Amino acid sequence: MIEPIRLLSRAEREACLERAGLNLFRLDAEEVYIDLLTDSGTGAISSGQQSAMMAGDESYAGARSFRRLEHTVREVFGLEHVLPMHQGRAAERVLNFVLVKPHQLVPGNAHFDTTKAHIEYARGRCLDLTIAEGHSPTARHPFKGNLDVPRLRTVFEEYGSAAVAYVLVTVTCNSGGGQPVSLANLREVAAVCREAGVPLFYDAARFAENAWFIKTREPGQADRSVAEIVQDMFSLVDGFTMSSKKDAISPMGGLLVVRDSGLFERLKMPTILFEGYVTYGGMSGLMMESLAVGLREVLDEAYLAHRIGQVAELADVLVRRGKVPIVEPVGGHAVFLDGRRFFPAVPEDQFPAQLLCVELYREGGVRTVEVGANLAGRDPDTGENLRPAMDLCRLAIPRRVYNREHFEYVAEVVAEVRERRASLDRGLRFSYEAPGIRHFDSRFEVII
Ligand code: F0G
User: Fold this and answer.
1) What is the pLDDT of residues 204-215, one digit of tens each?
2) Does any domain span residue 38?
3) Tell me: the pLDDT tens digits for 239-252?
4) In sequence order, what are the residues at sequence separation of 6 or more whose Cβ sits closer than 8 angstroms to the Cβ of residue 182?
5) Nearest C-alpha to atom 18 of ligand 1 is from which residue?
6) Which of 33, 101, 116, 439 has the fewest CB atoms within 10 Å, counting from its CB?
């Protein structure tokens, strides 16, 4: 799809920011010049997807489009039971409704915010067991999304298997900077789970990007195809949730897929209750067609090389032009700017990364998102603000949308803000803190 974009004047952008309460989710898309808010549902549809969508079968039960999707999922991932969902968080809702009992733990690697909220909604608790390097923006490690396996063992020893509902590995790890998990680590985690008799799940939104990093960064994997690596990764799990708006390159959609037929039976009731009948869940026939095609297109290695190459290219131009502090090595779907190092004069509890998001929009109409103290929210038990290890501004790259010229412009905008960082020493505070997930609707003011 080709879409027109328009750069508002500085005065108009100032007015938009004011109206939005310095929260970029509250801007209209037409007010944005380059939209790097998310890579979710923002990829361009291919001609293959468009034509498949024309053949969408909207039958309520047993639609042809569902069977095509089911067949594709079985072939690509090797798991049997497929439930279509309207997006990732719907799959999380259904899964946690069934698997999590009050006070049970779900260890993982920096759970995504909706995932964490759903686990807590089911009265469970998340344990972040990401390796230490994953909490540092500068530590060099090819797989900063890896789980700390000795700590996982300790969890089972200390609390016992019954205290753990399941283990969840997010591939790639979004909250940690789009960082991949190695196949070796996945194998180790799977072995520990098997020993403990606890199910292992993936949050598989960016599964293909993770497989690409395994191919290009992990010793001994270079000669294998991404499709083979995906098969290997998924042979280790009992099931997965997926937001299909990312690597499946669909505007909408999600999946909940499991190996065990007994668990599948238990998941049917909440699927029907929260989503829809089991052969469409939350999706239309045409979206299931788009998703089925997207799942194959994303395995194209020329596409993946270009995609991951684009992210690296943006990072490269940012660092070269503006000496901008970023999370390194660069991950899959986004470049993450380090808010604390970008604005060293702004105290950590005054949302430096959110301030950076605001300034990038003010400077050049570029929309990004904060992945830091605002997103982290409050401790569900104490109500205290959580202090994440990193306070980041994410420049997410929509799939098959922007090109080098757009990135040159973004880099220029970032460099401009970086140049006037000395004058930006005042942080932000809430003028309204939205309850629960506060990221989307809270408003801020500059501390004077
Ligand atoms: N898991 C991960 C790792 C995600 O990144 C997301 C969404 C979800 C689950 C939830 O999926 O949006 O389809 O309900 N991430 C988007 C983002 C919103 O911008 O990173 P959803």
Assistant:
1) 999 999 999 999
2) no
3) 999 999 999 999 99
4) 142, 143, 146, 214, 217, 218
5) 40
6) 101
- Considering the domain architecture, whether residues 106 and 120 belong to the same structural domain is answered as yes
Atom number in ligand 1 closest to CA 206: 3
Inform me whether the pLDDT recorded for 130 exceeds 80.
yes
**H/E element, 107:** strand 105-108
Catalytic residue (one of 112, 336, 351, 407):
112
Q: What DSSP string runs through 69-105?
A: HHHHHHHHH---EEEEESSHHHHHHHHHHHHPPTT-E
Whether the full predicted model's pTM is greater than 0.90, yes or no, is yes
Q: Containing domain of residue 328, as a range?
A: 10-32+301-443
Exactly one of 35, 39, 148, 203 is catalytic; name it.
203
Strand 34-35 and strand 366-367: pairing? parallel
Ligand 1 atom closest to residue 38's alpha carbon, by position in its atom list: 19
| Residues contacting 125, CB < 8 A, separation 6+ | 103, 104, 105, 106, 119, 380
Pairing type for strands 254-258 and 369-371 reads unpaired
Could you confirm whether 203 is annotated as catalytic?
yes
Mark whether 227 is an active-site residue: no
In this prediction, residue 154 carries a pLDDT of 98
Instruction: Please report, for the domain that includes residue 375, its CATH number.
Output: 3.90.1150.10
Which residue lies with its CA nearest to atom 2 of ligand 1? 112
Clarify whether residues 343 and 250 are in a common domain: no
Are 59 and 88 contained in the same domain? yes
**Beta carbons of 100 and 119 less than 8 angstroms apart:** yes
Ligand 1 site residues (CB inside 6 A) read 38, 40, 87-89, 112, 114-115, 170, 174, 203, 205, 243, 245, 254
Same domain, 362 and 321: yes
Q: How far apart are CA 225 and CA 425, in angstroms?
A: 49
Answer whether residue 184 shows pLDDT above 80. yes
How far, in Å, CA of 325 to CA of 335, rounded? 10
**Distance from C-alpha of 68 to C-alpha of 66, rounded to nearest angstrom:** 5
